[in-house]
Structures are given as C-alpha cells and as structure tokens.
Specification:
alpha/beta, 13 helices, 2 domains, disordered C terminus, 46% helix
Length: 338
C-alpha cells in the first residue's frame, strides 16, 4: 500500500501543471499521484496521460466531465488507495526537502502502528510580486514532533487557521467522514478542512514549510474581484459549514472553540467581500447571512456577531463600512492573503 495519495485537480492547467507534478515525483513509489482532469479543453488531458506513460507506478490519470474543484477532490478521495491523503492544486507546488521529511514521518506512523488522523504542516503564500513570502506557521499553538489531541492545542490567533494546504488526512478517516463536496462550487476547501475535524482524535504537527500556495493569476478563484463575482458560492459554502456540523454536539471544548474560530473567519471573509463590492444588493445579502446564522444557532450568532471581528464587519453606515474595508486591507498586508 502507498503511504500517500495526492490528488491534483486540473482544469485547463496546461501552463503550470507540470511544475506541480514534477515537485511531487520525488516521492517515488511511496506515493500515488492522482491527476483528475476535470473536463479541460486545452492540453491538460494529454499532459496527464504523458506522465502516466512515463511513471506508471506512480501516476494515475482520471478524465471526467467538468464538475468543479470539489468534484475533482471527491474523485480523488474515491480512488485513493494510500494510507494518507493530500490535495495539491495544479498551480501550486511543494518543497521537496519538506516533502521527503513528511514521507519519513508517515512511514514512522506505519512502523509504530500509530493511527495519526491528521498531519499538519506550514504553507507559504507565494504571492506574485511580493518581496517577502508570508508563512502560515502553527508552532505557537501546536506541540511539535509528537502525537497529541485537541486538549493540547492553544488558542489560534486571529487570521491563523487551518487550510487545505496545511492538512494531510488519514485516507480512511476522510472516507468514513462522509465528506462529499458540492459540484460546480468554488471555495469548497473550507468544507474539506472543516467537516472531517470532528472525526480527528490523534494529530501530529511537523514544522516544515511544505506547501507553496501561488497567488497572482487574474483568473484565480481567490482573486478578490473573482471572489466578489462568485460571492453566492462563498455564501453557500459558509452556510454548508454551519449546516453540516452541529457545533453544540462537539464534545471536546477545545475543538469546538477552534471550529467556531474557523467559522468566524469564513463569515468575516464573506461579509467583507459583500461590503467591498459596494452594491446595495450585496449589503442586503450580508444582512441575510447574519439573519440566517441567528435563526440557525443563536449561540453561534452571538459569538460571531459580538466578537471584535463581528463588531468590525457590522459598523453602521457607509463610514463604518469604509473602516471595515480598511481593516481588511491591513489584514491583507499582514497575512498575505487575497
């Protein structure tokens, strides 16, 4: 059995997918690379098939009708045979030295018969044109180089949270969690991280800068103007996160607090983008989102609405909204996200 399955969702990725795949090939026979061609109309399919011919023991290619990023990840999960599972988007890449250290660590899990559910690593914002690269690290909130559980974590800072780039799940756990990402929907990586967390018991943090998260293409889904155009999909994912996990039923209070923290961040992003658009229609959508949260879970609403981030996104009037946007811009500079 392979140590690690890596799914590479590809849609019209001919210009950059090779760099992604090449960075993952040094895993050799310990990994399976599952390239999911999600209905591309460029040379993506041919490039994927070329890699299968060159590396038949490592690379698989699956060609499907376009279903969106989430459906490509679903396909990867269904076809994964490795003990652990990772998603690497086709315009991103990984650091090879960190990658080999991760594989050594996963090998130790197998040798020690320790069923670690989730491995966490750092990721780097590879923002085009940025002089300094921001790194999302967790060494101030997570124990290093040992197996731990939720009781051992500290409170995450504002703006610090787990993303798809930082997580490797145990494959069987993610399958058993029942995760099924919606088709034709962007920003489902939030669901990918969030929903399986309630099934995670044993965690391991390896303090290496593994995943290189590229930000810079104008058509990229995380480009701010693109996110505003697709704001209904961001709101959809925001609501699905609330619907799919009943926070009050999460028994571990540290985990419950962390999941509330992540929900708060996603809701703030939704709200700020709605404000940033400047349209009356989207200001009404922001009010509707908060109303939805209040009707769904009064306690959740209270935590989101009356925390300092909640106060920030609900400042009254056009002047208040300008302050909210200003604070958001400062966060962009500090954290490096779009």
């Amino acid at each position: 059995m392979k140590l690690l399955s890596v799914v590479i969702p590809c849609y019209n990725s001919q210009d950059y997918m090779r760099d992604c795949i090449e960075s993952l090939l040094p895993g050799r026979e310990d990994v399976e690379l599952i390239i999911v061609n999600d209905g591309s109309v460029d040379q993506t399919a041919g490039i994927a098939d070329d890699y299968v011919r060159k590396y038949p023991e490592i690379v698989k290619a699956i060609h499907q009708k376009n279903g969106g990023h989430g459906e490509a990840v679903n396909t990867g999960i269904r076809n994964a045979t490795g003990l652990y599972f990772k998603v690497v988007d086709s315009d991103d890449w990984v650091d090879i030295r960190a990658y080999l250290k991760i594989l050594d660590t996963l090998r130790d899990f197998v040798n020690d018969a320790s069923s670690v559910d989730m491995l966490i690593t750092n990721f780097v914002y590879e923002k085009e044109g940025a002089k300094y690269k921001k790194v999302m690290k967790y060494d101030d909130v997570l124990p290093e180089d040992r197996v731990f559980n939720w009781d051992h974590i500290k409170d995450f800072r504002k703006g610090q949270y787990l993303m798809m780039h930082s997580i490797i799940y145990r494959t069987q756990l993610i399958k058993d969690s029942g995760l099924e990402l919606p088709k034709h929907t962007f920003y489902v990586d939030n669901l990918y991280v969030y929903q399986p967390l309630v099934h995670v018991e044993k965690i391991y943090y390896l303090n290496v800068d593994f995943y290189r998260y590229f930000i810079g293409r104008k058509d990229q889904s995380v480009n701010e103007s693109v996110m505003i155009r697709r704001i209904d999909q961001q709101i959809k994912v925001n609501k699905l996160m609330i619907e799919q996990v009943e926070l009050n039923s999460v028994k571990n209070l540290k985990l419950q607090r962390y999941m509330l923290h992540q929900l708060e961040i996603v809701t703030v992003i939704s709200s700020i983008l709605l404000i940033r658009s400047g349209t009356r229609e989207n200001i009404e959508k922001k009010k509707e989102l908060m109303k939805y949260i209040k009707e769904r879970d009064e306690k959740l609403y209270h935590n989101i609405r009356y925390g300092w981030m909640g106060h920030l996104i609900n400042l009254p009037g056009s002047f208040g909204r300008s302050i909210s946007v200003g604070a958001y811009k400062v966060s962009q500079k500090l954290v490096g996200f779009n």
